[in-house]
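Entry for the shared binder. Reason: the reviewer on the internal report wants the predicted structure included alongside the sequence.
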Amino acid sequence: MGKPKKKPPVPTVALPTPSVNGKGPSYLPAGQTRRMALILFFFSFLLYANTLGHEYAQDDAIVITDNMFTAQGIKGIPGILQYDTFYGF
């Protein structure tokens, strides 16, 4: 019998090195992750803050206020998931 054939090497993927605190990969310096998340949250909130006082739009009555499924509250969820959007109007 001859020598067994060698299998070709399996390609590998380089993984990021674990963070200093051992909680997983870290792409930002320690403390920067939380700061970046807070900045993103506040920026997103500021973009949409002016819409908090707005009223309903033209089609909102059909799918929200005058819909028989949404009027039922939590009990209407199966009907909302089962039927078309405008079925309960």
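Summary line for the report: The longest helix spans residues 32-48.
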